[in-house]
Amino acid sequence: MKEGNFLWWHRAIIYQVYPRSFQDSNADGIGDLTGIVQRLDYLQTLGIEAIWLSPIFPSPMADFGYDVADYTAIHPIFGTMEDFDHLLKEALQRGIKILLDLVPNHSSSEHPWFRESRSAKDNPKRDWYIWKDAREDGSVPNNWLSVFGGSAWEWDEATAQYYYHGFLKEQPDLNWRNEELVEAMLGVMRFWLDKGVDGFRIDVLWHIFKSESFADNPPNPGFAPHMPGYDSLLTVNSTDQPEVQDIVKRMRNLTDAYKDRVLIGEIYLPYEKLMTYYGRNNDGIHLPFNFTLMGINWDAQTIASSILAYEQALPPNAWPNWVLSNHDRPRIATRIGEGQARVAAMLLLTLRGTPTLYYGDEIGMKDVHIPLDEQQDPQGLNMPELNISRDPARTPMQWDSTAQAGFTTGKPWLRIADDFADHNVEKQEEEVNSNLSLYKKLIRLRQTSPALLYGAYKQVYIDQQLLVYTRELMGHGGFLIVLNLSHEPATFDIPSEYGGNVVLSSTGGTYDWKDGLLKLPADEGLVIHTSTHLQD
Ligand code: NOJ
User: Fold this and answer.
1) Which of 266, 361, 367, 472 is catalytic?
2) Is CATH 1.10.10.200 the classification given to domain 112-164?
3) What was the pLDDT predicted at 352?
4) pTM above threshold 0.90
5) Is 41 a catalytic residue?
6) How confident is the model at residue 535 (pLDDT cuts 50, 70, 90)?
7) Of 3.40.640.10, 3.20.20.80, 3.30.450.40, 3.30.870.10, which CATH number belongs to 3-107+179-443?
8) Among this protein's residues, is 136 annotated catalytic?
């Protein structure tokens, strides 16, 4: 791709705001839209050019907004439509784009569509959801399971049929084989695009079509008892059906009728399947989320081979992307420790492709232990023995050392980290070596370096501890990135052609570089500007 052909979403860093936990403006202990407006200056200074808001729509909150009861309105907890318009305007003034969360696979059971659908078998909206008769013995139509535990079928006494829910029973799946439903959901997209939102993150996109046969899913030979019951089956019939590609194309066509909008798909699939969501001719989702770094073992060999496999699997002209954390998984600093989380930041912001950053990761926030009697996430509550509550990764943003970390003047909906007085934005803004300072430097370097934005990725060296690669762009020089992905010191003989100067160190600089030999302390990453290399 030529430099002039790049669009804003190739360059931008996407920042995920979990609205409940970002900033409360009305003391109810829950973050809101006005709160986000108050923090836009912070995001601008950080160098963020796009924010993705987890759902802000009316919802009974059975799954914290991923159970939508009205797709074209704002939940009063978050504010009003005027507040949303205000946010759009204020963000625009700061050069920040707004992406919304589209939840097309399922609605809330409180959505008027579902109320109608369940009211009678001959209701015109019956077919907007997935209804099936019981088997002869009265049992569920097939063996499909819910991600959140138990059968995915719920019996409806009044109309004597089962409905399908891939998640909670309060989240009935919509029937994407019904054209009226498709039109309604595309209408939802138009509604927000007309308002000026810059695109969508699309929830569980690979779930929206189920096999027409509704055949049982086969057992998963890799299943182990520590896994959620959902993983006991291979979801070959209940997810990732070929028909999804037609809808993806329609979503893309619709989006292309507007200028410069972007579609990001939440898709947890192996590379060869993930890549199909880019579309045959790059006419699908612009950025099917790449969750590689959230799921793999954190060691140099695994990371290096995953990056190469991903780069090689990308279709021609498809643009890569990388994610370190989100609201569904433990935070990066909890998964790999504080030191490595800084190396991970360096990796995220020097890889080729659009990075997505989860709120709070920039200050090294960690998961917060939430006692069972305070837990709220249905995933955790339904499967307490598995310890998979998502609450710990969703705690309020730590802004300053005042009460409730500056997040609220009320009682926060989830408890705040005990050590917030030491770990917060205000403190880290003053410390040259803080996590936040590192993020700011990395972001600034990335956003001002065409080689980091658009240059090729080339692996230079790999061993048990180190991953070394270049990002180079003809005419713009390049960078050598040396990451010690271990907790032990490491050494690297820098090939002579990569001479240059260190522009960033993840620890603040305790490395030693003499006569071509680089000695790195534990958990150290370096970005070296190889200014003399690859000039044209
Ligand atoms: C994926 C979302 O990220 C998650 O939070 C939610 O529970 C499920 N989809 C169901 O919508």
Assistant:
1) 266
2) no
3) 98
4) yes
5) no
6) very low
7) 3.20.20.80
8) no
